[in-house]
Amino acid sequence: MGMLDNKVAVVTGASSGLGRAIALRYAAEGARVVLADVRDEPIEGGATTLTLIEAAGGSAFFVATDVGQWAEIDALIGFAVERFGRLDVMVNNAATYTGTNMLESSEAQWERVLRVNLTGMFFGCKRAVQQMLTQEPVDEVRGRIVNVSSQHGMVASPGDFPYGVSKGGTVQLTRQIAVDHAAELIVCNAVAPGKIITGKPGAANDPHALDYSRRRTPWPRLGRPEDVAGAALFLGSSLASFVTGINLMVDGGWMAG
Ligand SMILES: NC(=O)c1ccc[n+]([C@@H]2O[C@H](COP(=O)([O-])OP(=O)(O)OC[C@H]3O[C@@H](n4cnc5c(N)ncnc54)[C@H](O)[C@@H]3O)[C@@H](O)[C@H]2O)c1
């Protein structure tokens, strides 16, 4: 018995990093997973998420999707429902960043990051709730949303102004939806990763950034994508009952210090 047997999930940003780990874990727990991303090749290299799920005997589809475009989110959820009949879990994970402080950030950079990280999450949540409201509740719940925020939604993201502001928005967006749609049996929570090592090039794996993260993280290692996948599994499953509007930190104690 998997924790998500007979559940249908959509995961955005599912080709790489944390989204990939979440999609793989959901599929391993029995979910039918629709993978949404602007690219299918993982940023870190290796087989696509779809290939890995199918090789393990799971069930998934990939739908090329830019989360910042309403028409594409609309088509994505439409596809999931057409294929699998309903939508149980929506994971809004896709995000981008610039690594620029306020003075270095152009209007175009600001608009791109806010469009993907915040408007994309609004679109993902809105379209998911529209679908979930048409569904009969299962175990008291019509559908669950898991948003991937960040510890940088609560404290500043040094030198990454548009990203930090966008992540602050994701935490409040999550609370807002949880409160406004609780009576309709929609569950909405966030996962706030601390520093999780992924294969992406550039600032995220720069030795100074890693050093800073190690100093901030009490636990004696940095995070793994699987750590976040475990938390996303809990929030996507019926184990998380009477839990809504939270921002679950997966940060090795970063925010406790
Ligand atoms: N890695 C960390 O340490 C860390 C820490 C805190 C929060 N997070 C959050 O976790 C999530 C995943 O981060 P990651 O480290 O795995 O990043 P990543 O860059 O490795 O992967 C992000 C994925 O999202 C996709 N994507 C980007 N723009 C998109 C768009 N417009 N539409 C659809 N897909 C798009 C990319 O193609 C990529 O596959 C993000 O929300 C990020 O803010 C990560």
What gyration radius follows from the Cα positions, in whole Å? Answer: 17 Å
User: Based on CA inertia axes, which overall geometry fits?
Assistant: globular
Task: Count the E strands.
Answer: 7
CATH topology term:
Rossmann fold
Secondary-structure class: alpha/beta
CATH architecture: 3-Layer(aba) Sandwich
Structure description:
There is one protein chain. The model has no long low-confidence stretch (mean pLDDT 97). The longest helix has 26 residues, at 107-132. Helix content is 40%, strand content 15%. The chain is α/β, with parallel strands linked by helices. It contains 7 helices and 7 strands. It has one domain (8-256): Rossmann fold. Helix 1 packs across helix 7 (225-236), helix 3 (70-84) runs parallel beside helix 4 (107-132) and helix 4 runs parallel beside helix 5. The chain has a 7-stranded parallel sheet with strand order 3-2-1-4-5-6-7, with helices on both faces. The radius of gyration is 17 Å and the shape is globular. The site of nicotinamide-adenine-dinucleotide has 28 residues, from helix 1 and helix 4.
